[in-house]
Here is the input.
Amino acid sequence: MMSRSIVSLIFVMLLVRLSSAFQQYGEDSQHPWCSNTLMSCDVSEEEKVDPIFMQSAIELVKNDQGNLSINQEALKILSAIDMPVVVVAIAGRARTGKSYLLNRLAGKRKGFSLGSTIQSHTRGIWMLCLPHPKKTDHALILLDTEGFGDPEKGDNENDNSIFTLSILLSSVFIYNSRGNLDQSELEYLHFVSELTKHIQLTKSKKNNEEWEYIDFFPDFVWVVRDLTLEMTINEEIVSADEYLEHILKLKNGTNEKTEKFNTVRRSIRDYFPKRKCFGFVCPTTRFKLKLLDDLLDEELDPEFVEEFELFSHYIYEEAKTKKVEGVHKVTGRTFVSLIESYIAELNSTQKFCVESAVTQVAEKANLAALEKSLDFYRKGLEKFSSSSIDDLTDLQKQLYRRALKIFLKNSFLKDSQEYLVKLMMTTKKYNEEKLKKMHETSLERCTVLIKDLKKDLINNLKSGKYSRPGGYAEYMTDLQSIITDFTADTEEEVQAITVLKSFTEEMNVISETIKNTDNILSEKENKINDFLAQQRKILEEKEAMQTKATSMEKEYRMDETLGQLEDACQIQKTQIGEHYEFIRMKQEDEKDRYKEEGREEEAHKKEEEEKFYRKKRDESSSSYSSIFWRLVKYVLSFFS
Here is the structure.
């Protein structure tokens, strides 16, 4: 039948124009028109949001007679910081200059408010956020805590809560003291030996060994202010670090007095394997202390300025990114979840359960990672305006690769399977919705175009132009002209074939009528039919390639998911291995110190702890292999 010839003619003419595009389908290289389209879509990995950095401190944790609550304005500021954070907290006795030290670290004169009287000035925990001076992709969060031993409070439990919270929130904890290091100053640090009374690591195990807390505790820096004596051991001047280790040595004996002497020292050594000490002279004379925040460095004691430079350099260079479970970098947003979880735990039970808090943080982080990656994917699709299926497929590949990267970067990998499946399901749904909309708009455009192109043909039919000998050949020429113009203008339109098929079905009856009135079978028609017979095989091959391309896109998404999962697991496996190796080495150093002190019992304990962390280091490889294969199972089940 002639109608079949016309339909085949249309398909062949359209597909021949697209043949070069199909040959490149599925390759990584982009088509010329696709490159421009993708550039216009701007599929940069993440939309950068400028964080809200601060000129002055704001209250983060409010302390209302021992009842702790969170300042929502502070949380808004933290939530805008979508980059890893280094958290430096300072604690110590009331009225010892903690706020001034943080102001100098921040490079500000009045970031934290200073008290100029003997009355304690800071309540709760105050926060100052600013760009990290050395790590351009990090933010620095400074936390100033209310002082211990304020007679106006008279509540040691309140001090314990603030101290414990600052320990758990920070990546570096600064203990600020005034005067020379002695036993009375160490007694103020009794909070350290009581940390386990306020912290429970897991729900199932209420009592943990001291060294098990190392995973969750920060590095320790002791700052000794207003030194009046040289730091000496046996009349020999030593460094601040050497003096600190000397002060932390344990006494031999088992009586109550000796045990009391050793308790805080042992706790510091157990909980903080990485520790540092700095000693500062008084920055100025007593009469100028009220004006301290207005004084220039030239007006301060040069020795204080020099020592502070060493201190600030150490904090900027050595303070680690805040992490959870040794591998998950904490952003400002994740820090919000940490604070909320810890405060909720403290207010409900008066004891932190770290496992519960981390579980809540992981859930919030995974949900936020999912929303962030889907938002990136959705916005990329919304910007797409091309009519080409090839362009759309290439864009979807790029968007999926980068959305998956965003998700894995921001999620807690070992608890992410549910959210990973949601990412795959939702991006698939976005693709289907985009394709549906693309078909609808393409159908509308093609319908308008064919209606305009066939006007002259319809007018000729009405005037009887083709109802004569040779009219059928002329009709076929005009029809072919319409098809040629249409395919030229709809080269990338997904609904071009559908509209052409509808058009030919409309013209079938008319075509047969014209042929019956024309007794001359034109030579041109014979040539067209011969050409169609030769090209039908091409049509079948092109249709098969299109089906294969759809299958290839599915395979690409599966391969990309598995590949990135493997990379992410490998990175985290390396990081957790390095984390445990660092702790193991510090335990080894502590073991050697105890041996030098003749403390064989403590040295043996540290040797056991060193073995434990060596085992955890070695087991981390198989642990992350298990995580990887569990996630692979979810991925394969989704694509099967």
